Amino acid sequence: MNLKILILGAGYGTRLQRDILQDTSQKYSHLLGIPKALLPVGGQDALITHWLQIFKTANIDVASSVYVVTNDPSYNSFISWADRNSIPRSNIVNDKSTCNEDQLGAVVDLLFGLNYFKLFNNDLLIVGGDTLFLKDFNFNKLLDQFSTFNDGCLVTTYTIPKNEISKYGILTINKLNYDNGLFEVTDFLEKPNPESTNSRNACPCFYLLKSEALPLIEEFLKEAEFKGAKLEDKDATGKFLAWVIKGKHFKFYAVQINGRIDVGDLKSYVEAKEYFGD
User: Fold this and answer.
1) What span, in angstroms and rounded, lies between the C-alpha atoms of 173 and 278?
2) Where would I find the Nucleotidyl transferase domain in this sequence (predicted)?
3) CA-CA distance, 22 to 24, in Å (whole number)?
4) Residue 62 maps to which CATH number?
5) Predicted TM-score of the model (pTM)
6) In the predicted model, what is the mean pLDDT of residues 203-226?
């Protein structure tokens, strides 16, 4: 499998930075200005270094397969991370945004990274830079499942309480109908009202896309621009998934996992550190 990995790390972590500033204990003041993807957690120098270890267990050459899109203020920090982890500096690209107000949006950054690194001829794993999975996540098994079919892309899902529905992208999936544990995705809602869906299947930003599906990213953005899209329409990768799935542009399948670590604010970061035993 000719798989490339694109990590999205161009967000500004405004909630986390606000929480650190407001924390009277000053215990986490040393984290001011550090991108969420580079927060130290679980004995690693950065959150995304966990992913490097996981990829290596699948015999993926991270130096030739892992790429990062970041922003101007965070660029040098990601270069330092790349140096520490034997990732070529040329695998890090700056989207030139300078603050939360002029950020490009995750889907725009996704297309930017695809074009900059020339990844369109490869199957692609997209990873949100603020996301980790629980310790029992089996990436090798997921890759095996991805390789069993040629007609679709693969996402992960886990069950959440009803009162958290509006925080996440939510999948509707068919009953299990594959021997290898795959479900067919029939609908996707980005941060819906809890009363608008009976599904409790959250979908993190961790997408395995077939190379044939990658041109749809540009098609989605062109259509969004034509309709006068706002930043929020381009800043959630789930908006792209919803467009693909609702329009039946490409099949998506889902495999269940036991959960994720989602670093959005200081509370969730502290919980992540506790979970990994820091």
Assistant:
1) 36
2) 6-274
3) 6
4) 3.90.550.10
5) 0.95
6) 94
